[in-house]
Write a structure and sequence with these properties.
The protein is built from 2 helices and 7 strands, in the order H-E-E-E-E-E-E-E-H. By secondary structure, the chain is of the alpha+beta class. The protein has one domain: Pleckstrin-homology domain (PH domain)/Phosphotyrosine-binding domain (PTB) (PH-domain like, Roll), CATH 2.30.29.30. Strands 4-3-2-1-7-6-5 form a 7-stranded antiparallel beta sheet.
Length: 136
């Protein structure tokens, strides 16, 4: 019988709905909070894009939150690393979007952590802030 007008109309309706559902689920997954975040106020928190290991996350499907003791990066997967495990930061780029690379030695976290924040200076300041003696 071939493709009919009904088939084409169905595809024109169904495909955007599937894309919308997948987009909403990805956005919601990045928004979820980890147990370590409960009851704490982040020094810095933002939606951004970035690269965790080999996986790229376009803006706004990555969330980074910097706490006194932890850094949380959530996207398709989520990672929390102790702030003390960050060995260095590297800001790459000459214009927006800048890339902030986090060099770390945290176990269970991919070696490659890159984020593309809008407020680079705020993120770098929060990451460089000294560890507080309180917190978990």
């Amino acid at each position: 019988m071939g493709i009919t007008v009904v088939h084409i109309a169905w595809c024109l309706v169904a495909l955007p709905l599937v894309v919308a559902v997948v987009t909403v689920l990805a956005y919601a997954r990045a928004a979820r909070r980890f147990p370590v975040e409960r009851g704490q106020q982040p020094r810095y928190q933002a939606r951004c894009g970035g690269r965790i290991g080999r996986h790229g996350h376009p803006i706004p499907f990555l969330r980074i939150a910097v706490y006194d003791q932890w850094v949380v990066i959530a996207g398709r997967g989520g990672y929390q690393l102790p702030k003390g495990a960050i060995e260095g930061l590297e800001v790459v780029g000459t214009r927006t979007p800048f890339t902030v690379r986090l060099h770390h030695h945290a176990a269970g976290v991919p070696e490659r952590l890159e984020v593309w924040p809008v407020a680079v200076e705020e993120l770098v300041a929060a990451l460089k802030a000294p560890l507080s003696s309180t917190g978990s």
